[in-house]
Amino acid sequence: MKATIAKQFTFDAAHRLDKLPVEHKCHRMHGHTYRVEIRVRGNVRDDGFVLDYALLDEVWRPLFDQLDHRVLNEIPGLAVPSTEHVAYWIVLRIGALWAPNVDKIWVRVFESATTWCEVEGLWVVT
Length: 126
Prior knowledge:
Layout: E1 2-15, E2 30-43, H1 53-67, E3 70-71, H2 83-92, E4 102-110, E5 116-122
Parallel strand pairs: 1-3
Antiparallel strand pairs: 1-2, 2-4, 4-5
């Protein structure tokens, strides 16, 4: 049986989007309370789980420490800290979720209550 599990996290950070025109409001430094949703799809194991939610906490903690109350532009790999790049940055770093029963991982980053970007990672399990 396949199932998808998910967990949400938040972090606060500032950024500026330097590639936008100078007159655009997001070109200036500003901040957000980001909400991150990590979803994992895979086979339900004999113990009844795709993954233990505690593993999602373990994977998120070092990312939280790198992102929370930071200027995203100053983080290696986030020189262009659009929501798209933040989601991609996170999905690249959650390799600890790779397990024989995991098919797909999605990361959805909400910049506000109404705007978000989702990036999916696919891994071939050998």
